[in-house]
Amino acid sequence: MTGIVGYGTKIPRYRIKVEEIAKVWGADAPTYKRGLNLNEKSVPAPDEDCATLSVNATLNALKRAKIDPADIGAVYVGSESHPYAVKPTGTIVSEAIGACPYVHTADLEFACKAGTEGMFIALNLVKSGAVPYALAIGADTSQGAPGDALEYSAAAGAAAFIMGTDNLIAELKDTHCYMTDTPDFWRREYKHYPEHGGRFTGAPAYFKHVTGAVDAILGKTNMKPEDFKYVIFHQPNGKFPVLVAKKLGFTEQQYLPGLLSPTLGNTYSGSSPMGFAATLDIAKPGELILLISYGSGAGSDAFIFETTKKIDEVRDLAPMLRTQLDEHKIYIEYGTYAKFRKKILLPN
Amino acid sequence: MRKLAIIGIGLIKWGELWEKSMRQIAAEAVYKCLEDAGTDRIDAMTIGNMSGGLFNGQEHLSSLIPDHMGRKNIPAMRIESACASGGMAVRTACLEVASGFSDYAIAVGVEKMTDISGNEATYALATAADQDYEAFHGVTFPGLYAMMAKAHMDRYGTTREQLSSVVIKNHYNGSLNPNAQFPFKITSDQVLKSPMVSDPLRLLDCSPITDGAAAVLITTLEEAKKLKKQPVLISGIGHASDSIALSSRKDLLKLEAVELSTNKALEMAGKSIKDIDFAEVHDCFSIAEIMILEALGVVAPGDGGKASSDGLTGLNGGFPVNPSGGLKSKGHPVGATGVAQICEAVTQLRGEAGKRQLKNIRTGLTQNMGGSAGSSVVHILEVI
After folding, report:
1. Is B83 a catalytic residue?
2. Mutate which of A28, A184, A186, A196 to disrupt the B interface (most B C-beta within 10 Å)?
3. Distance between CA B196 and CA B205 in Å, rounded?
């Protein structure tokens, strides 16, 4: 058996509301709130980055997995906000959690799909028997250009999953990928902010690939939407995942537990993995969960997991995602946000 | 001058056609047109296109388009008059046939607008305004039409509800048009809740950015009679220009080019506006349709808003306007719009418009304009 032995998340405490951003740019806040189903988003503190979020999420995952971190044979960090252009985030994380030195690591990038890319590799690596445990992280301090539509959603957060072959809390039932060369969103070298194709990011990009991955995995496994207790989609905003869920025949009861973007924003590589973690927080043993990521460029990974009895034992060993999302929030104004996110040019 | 007839029309479904290139959609419209006409003869081609250069980085459509459809040796030319490029292409094809230079001239309108960002498209469109006296100062078309709307409201008491009535009517018509980009109805509440673009114009007062193409095949009335399809006569053509900048006009609310081009077309057809049964007009913004109604002489200056909200221009009104859904609902691929207006008028006059078919019609008018009516072209079409 292959699957998850521990999972953990990390969300920064700071939040900025859609109204606060819209006020600065003279934009119509109700249009964004209604049109994109967004209310507020998380903001990383000045001392938080992709590496710290990854480490914190992993420490929570280790609390649930109760394994020796030195037994982790592989660490994959998926992000589009790696602190260094050249120098791995994976080494920072591996060192901080105590996995060094006998560990393989790689930083991954595939827009918002980098997190599930790591999950895909880690799951297959433990399945092959090459390593006893493999760690996959989706983490981002997402970038959105000031004034751009992305600024209302680009958020920060991380989810970490430790994969193994026994003492599983969720067993992997199947996976399927769907990928084409579709340039809907990108960031060129030396650019601070990503660019996107506007409405092109919708039908031919997000919807085509998410639908393609779901259709493929349902066809492969001969399953139907109603066979699943929960479903989690990538969440670039609050609107797309709801639209695609309805189009594919999933119900609110299935997608709402994992829908975080209305109050979290889009944590890019962390997005669907965090929705998955929020779902594991409430799932009962023996429930089927369908997870579908999406990364611009573009592709979707689909996973089917089934929770085991062990999920009840580990759930309370680390902070729940909704607790981090809904409690102890600190709201900031745009000026503070601009300072935290280094949007103000300083001398030197 | 030889008498002119339309013997074929070709229109494709408009929208965000990301899977297709400009040359493909132009070719599709031409093939549909030739199939409709029942002939594959093309002696000359005119191509209405506003800005292949800025939208697609592609000029020289006079070579590109015929070549792609396997007609590389025909004389072809691209016609540009901003958003009136399509109407001007039809007019030029008419001149080609009327003069005896060609017997079969096809007018193709094409614009591929969604392959660039909204900001880039806005910039491209704003090149139809006066670069020195308008665009340079930051105003784009929603701003220019908003000024006209404000002035219309101020002088004539035109209301927000009257502006909305144009939009609601055109979307209702468009909901019956399978080729429309936005074939759905909208409510007054939706208009009022749509984002403000330039006060008083909201998002739903504005026509969209669209990929689309259309084609019409023109020949002489004599030739047309040899073909199976019932021809539609082009009895009037009017064309006029006006100052490009609004600031150069004596009256902000007088669309002089529209008025002059309409009068010329009516005079050529030997008709008055009372003889016209319906019109396809250039509703790039809700206020535009109201002002065009006045410039055509359908109603007195200042009465356009009330006429719209009273239902004069509805499918069952006394003077139906934009049965196709207009630019607002059908879409506005700028170079294709003027050609598509002719397609709709022909469809209506043939009695092939399905659920949006107008009753008891014999004569229709199409009006297509560039920018803030710096140029305008009008055609009058009749059942033979």
Report:
1. yes
2. A28
3. 9
pLDDT tens-digit map of B145-178: 999 999 999 999 999 999 999 999 999 999 999 9
Q: ipTM score here?
A: 0.74
Average pLDDT over all residues of chain B: 97
Nearest of B346, B348, B374, B376 to residue B361 by alpha carbon? B348
- Rounded to whole angstroms, how far apart are CA atoms B178 and A213? 30
For residue A207, the domain's CATH number is 3.40.47.10
Check A48, A234, A287, A306 and give the catalytic one. A234
Catalytic, A80? Answer: yes
User: Is A197 within 8 Å of B16 when comparing Cβ atoms?
Assistant: no
**Which of helix, strand or coil describes residue B216?**
strand
Q: CB–CB of B18 and A198 under 8 A?
A: no
Residues A276 and A329 occupy one common structural domain:
no
Q: Which amino acid is at B382?
A: E
Q: Do A198 and B117 touch (CB under 8 A)?
A: yes
In Å, how far are A27, A30, A345 from A147, measured between CA atoms?
9, 16, 16
Count of domains observed in chain A: 2
Q: Would you state the structure tokens that stand for residue B195, as one six-digit string?
A: 């984002």
Does A20 lie in the same domain as A31? yes
Under an 8 A CB cutoff, do B114 and A204 touch?
no
Q: Is residue A348's pLDDT more than 80? A: no
* Residue A116 shares a structural domain with residue A223: no
In this prediction, residue A104 carries a pLDDT of 98
Domains of chain B in sequence order: 4-117+210-224 (3.40.47.10), 138-205+235-379 (3.40.47.10)
Which chain A residues contact residue B117 at CB under 8 A? 197-198
* C-alpha atoms less than 13 angstroms from C-alpha of A110 in its C-beta half-sphere: 23
- Do the domain assignments include residue A297? yes
